[in-house]
Amino acid sequence: MRAVVQRVTRASVSIEDEVVGSIGPGLVILLGIGEDDGSEEVDYLADRVVNLRIFADEAGRMNISGLDAGADLLVISQFTLYGDCRAGRRPSFIRAAAPDRARALYEEFVDALRAHPLRVETGEFGAMMTVSLDNWGPVTLLLDTDGTF
Question: Pseudo-torsion of CA 83, 122, 70, 105, nearest 10°?
Fold first, then answer.
């Protein structure tokens, strides 16, 4: 499972010019599900995301987790995080999970985040979406349950 996590001052996701999710200060999570991912990866990554200490304390140091900061979360499905661009000019998505399996794990991930006292918004799995955000810092992190990042 892979995630691009961006700290934001605000963000929204739209489908055909209609906003389907929006947040204030918090995190945008672009989530990719791999073919070998399961519930163990969901639990690990959800815990990792909410406990990342990437919000500033009184001294301006990144010492406060999203959970402690009361961050809003916006989760967007992003199968292209499994795009392999090492050969040719067209990405291969062979390592991405099949859509039905990916949808189930995406929903499980969102539910795992919602188990915390944080506001969680989402896009729509599999839809063509427009994501707008103001990256704060900027802070952008890559997380991968296989230990790559």
Answer: -60
- pLDDT given for residue 147 in this prediction: 77
Residues 57-77 have pLDDT tens digits of 999 999 999 999 999 999 999
Cα 100 versus chain centre, distance: 19
Q: Determine the longest span between alpha carbons in the chain, in angstroms.
A: 49
Judged by DSSP in three states, 120 sits in strand
Structural domain of 117: 2-134
How far CA 84 is from CA of 6, 23, 46, in Å, comes to 22, 31, 24
d(CA 130, CA 11): 11
Q: How far apart are CA 129 and CA 11, in angstroms?
A: 13
Nearest CA to 113 out of 72, 53, 62, 144 is that of 72
**pLDDT tens column, 17-32:** 999 999 999 999 999 9
For the annotated catalytic residues, the residue numbers are 78-80
* CATH code, domain carrying 38: 3.50.80.10
